[in-house]
Amino acid sequence: MGAGVLNTSGRKRRNRRVRAKPMAEINVTPFVDVMLVLLIIFMVAAPLLTVGVPIELPKTAATPLPSEEEQPLTLALTADGGLILQNSPIERDELITRLKAIAAERKSDKIFLRADGSVAYEAVMQVMGALNAGGFRNIGLVTDSGGPTLDGRKN
User: Which of 12, 20, 30, 85 is the most buried (most CB within 10 A)?
Assistant: First the structure.
């Protein structure tokens, strides 16, 4: 038998739907869930945004360079003489060709060189020559702040 809603007069209503009242409450649980997931993602991703090559940088009294609109390109020279472009190791013989390809795609000719403090001056200058040959004429040497000044005092 057909089910229906009784009218106040006692007759059955047929083919009419009972309208549900709109819900006046806001369900914030999905919003909170999404925000917590985003918080966790940013907490995990934030430490990975820095270049993570373990290098013992020399300390100087130099001030930091101002930031740029393009992501900075970095080349690291490790204590054992290895080269790491951004986060990927690179062989010395393919450095100049890779740099030329990157220089063709970038607006800026700026590159940051991070060299371990124990690397010989000659090796650093060879890498700087390769950077120049690869199309990067604006080379910034990365150091840690707080080192000694020329008069021997610590900063």
Answer: 85
